[in-house]
């Protein structure tokens, strides 16, 4: 940074920052940042340009790059904000240097351009790498969280659990359903599992095959699967496809399925008020005697 170009840029950093802020602000209208408040946009821009100058002074080795990229991801801003901002910085810096060109010879033009590129390109690489790695880390965490939620097994009563399924079922998710189902049946000592497909938009041959496999696996470890949430259109599709579900209990609603599960575990739903009335009648009859 002891070159003539470096000294000009650093000594006039305030002017370059103002030029950069003005040009970047013009990108806000009609872009991905159009819905962001002016205060947040301006403060982030100031932090961005400070990171740029700090990286130039430290020759790219700056911990602020990582924290700034993580902040952008948390704000939900795209990678193009970084690349656009650095391209603007390159252009503004070169324009400013040209305005001071009386101190340069013609044969210094190309070295000046190269010098600015030598500042900007490492920052682009570093910020893009940090942004990408941070994004991949967040995506992997979200993927794990979605996996846990994609096939939950919920114990609702002793020996009875429910697995509500929502969305499409592909091969990878079917494998996860099978794993969670078997582990949950053993963990909760389930005798009956209700697989609720109310939220599954399409049941084709592949989906039915996966469900049948899951029911067979549960039966092998001593449990029973009841398929619930079969809507009329799904029932018609199953019949048209020739899928045989006769060996597996099916119910149209979760309520009916839960009632069947109670019966399979030697329980039933009773009307407390009715039982109370019958008890009172019995007591009255005893008093009369």
Explain how this protein is built.
The chain is of the alpha/beta class. It has 11 helices and 5 strands; from the N terminus they run H-H-H-H-H-H-E-E-H-E-H-E-H-E-H-H. The protein has helices spanning 4-11, 13-25, 38-57, 64-75, 80-99, 109-150, 171-188, 205-220, 232-241, 254-264, 272-288; strands at residues 154-157, 160-166, 192-199, 224-228, 250-251. Strands 1-2-3-4-5 form a 5-stranded mixed sheet, with helices on both faces. Helix 2 crosses helix 3, helix 4 packs across helix 6 (109-150) and helix 5 runs antiparallel to helix 6 (109-150). The longest helix is centred in the middle third of the chain and has 42 residues, at 109-150. It starts with a helix and ends with a helix.
Specify the helix fraction band.
55-70%
Separation, N- and C-terminal Cα atoms: 110 Å
The largest pleated sheet is described as: 5 strands, mixed
Number of helices: 11
């Amino acid at each position: 940074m002891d070159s003539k170009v470096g000294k000009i840029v650093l000594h006039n950093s305030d002017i370059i920052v103002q030029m950069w802020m003005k040009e970047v602000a013009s990108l806000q209208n009609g872009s991905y940042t159009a819905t962001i408040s002016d205060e947040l946009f301006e403060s982030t821009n100031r932090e961005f340009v400070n990171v740029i100058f700090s990286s130039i002074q430290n020759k790219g080795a700056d911990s602020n790059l990582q924290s700034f990229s993580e902040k952008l991801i948390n704000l939900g801003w795209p990678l193009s904000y970084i690349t656009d901002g650095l391209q603007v910085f390159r252009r503004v810096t070169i324009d400013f240097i040209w305005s001071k060109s009386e101190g340069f010879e013609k044969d210094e033009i190309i070295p000046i351009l190269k010098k600015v590129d030598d500042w900007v390109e490492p920052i682009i690489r570093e910020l893009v790498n940090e942004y990408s790695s941070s994004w991949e880390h967040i995506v992997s965490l979200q993927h794990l969280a979605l996996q846990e939620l994609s096939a939950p097994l919920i114990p609702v009563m002793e020996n009875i659990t429910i697995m509500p399924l929502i969305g499409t079922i592909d091969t990878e998710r079917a494998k996860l359903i099978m794993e969670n189902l078997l582990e949950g049946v053993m963990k909760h000592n389930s005798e009956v599992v209700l697989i609720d497909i109310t939220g599954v938009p399409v049941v084709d041959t592949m989906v039915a095959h996966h469900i049948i496999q899951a029911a067979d696996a549960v039966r092998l470890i001593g449990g029973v699967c009841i398929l619930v949430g079969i809507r009329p259109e799904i029932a018609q599709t199953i019949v048209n496809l020739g899928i045989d579900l006769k060996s597996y209990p099916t119910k149209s609603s979760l309520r009916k399925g839960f009632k069947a599960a109670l019966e399979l575990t030697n329980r039933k739903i009773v009307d407390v008020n009715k039982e109370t009335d019958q008890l009172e009648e019995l007591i009255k009859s005893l008093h009369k005697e």
